[in-house]
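Journal club side-thread
Mid-discussion, someone asked how the predicted structure for our own chain would compare to the paper's figures. Pasting it here so we can look after the session.
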Amino acid sequence: MKNWTKEICPKIFKKVEIYKAKASGCVTMWLSGGKFQVGNGGISHGGLNVMDYVDACYHTQTYFKAYENLILPMNGMELWDRTNMPPCVPPSYSKQPRRPRKARRKKAVECSMKANVVTKV
């Protein structure tokens, strides 16, 4: 990425070039009388630069600005700076609620009543 000399990031630049090639000849224009006309034109044919219309978040300067304060990984806790603060402890564990049962629990009275029901044999 540091060797890239364009103003826009490489992946976005490729997409812009593809879309520019696809839309090079098609532009709709509103004519008087309530009709549309398809003709040649567009941003690139009007003498304007397509890259000026790409949002600033896709520029290489924005990319480098976002990643300039990168925190690099360390090879273990021995390399960490010692402080006077108490050590970090994980949060206390509490059992989470489960999924509700499919059927309700029946009382003992209901179960004994079902025992008296005669079924077909």
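Post-session note: DSSP finds three helices and two strands in the chain.
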